[in-house]
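INFO batch 0412 | record 1 of 1 | parsing
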Amino acid sequence: MGNHDLALLREKAKPYELYHGLRLVRNGRTLFCFHGHQASRLFAKKGYISGFVVRYLAKPLKIKNTSISSDSRQRFKAERRIYRASKKLKVISICGHTHRPLFESLSKYDSLRWSIEELLREYPAAGDDRKEKIARLVELYSSECLRLKRSDLRWGLSRSLYEEKSLLIPCVFNSGCATGKHGMTAIEIEGGRISLVHWAREGGIRPYILEEALLKDGIEGTAFSRYTLKQADLDYVFARIDLLGKG
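INFO prediction complete | emitting C-alpha cells
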C-alpha cells in the first residue's frame, strides 16, 4: 500500500488482499518491505485528510503539491526515520516513496563519490591505457555528481549519511522512483543476493550507468536490457548490521 492507495481499504470487494507491509525471512533474519510513507508523520497520522485535500482542493484549484519526491528536507527526514528504526531493530528495510535509490544506506551521490575515490587510488600505479580510462570515468562520474548537486542543492550531497559520528549501518534499500525518463529501477532479491537494477531501452540510458553496471542482461527479442548496478550477499549485509551496530 502506498500513500495514494489508502482509499482502496474502504472498498468492500477487492481482487486481492492489501497489505501495509511484507515481512520476508532469511535464516531467521527479517527483511521488511513497505512503501515508505509510513515514516512521514503527516501520512501516518493524517493520511486520509491529506489525500482529501490533494484530490478535492489542490488539484481542482491547481495548487502545486509539494511532494516528498521534490522536497529534499522531507525526503531526508523520512529516510532518517527508516534508517534509525532499521538500525535499532537490526532489520533490512526495503522501501520506495522518497524517489531516491539507496543501496546499503548509500545514495547515488555517495556511491559515485566512493567510486571516484577508488579510481583515484588506482590511478598512480595503472598502465597508460588504464589511466586513460580512469581519467574518462572520473570526468563522467564527476559530471553526474555535479548534476545531482544542482538538482538537490542543500540536502542531496552526503545527506544519506544519517550517522554524524559513527559508522553507517547498511540497513536501508530503496528502489528509487521506479519509473523515469531513462528507464525503471528496482530492488531484486534472488538466490540470497540483493541487487539494485535498472531496466532501460538500448540508447536511452545515462552514460555513467553503462560504465558503472556490474552486469548487463539483454532481453531476447526486445530492445531492453537489465543493468545490475549494485549487488550484495544478504548474509554479508546482516553481518555488517550486527557488527557495525554494536554499542
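INFO post-check: DSSP finds six helices and eleven strands in the chain.
INFO record closed
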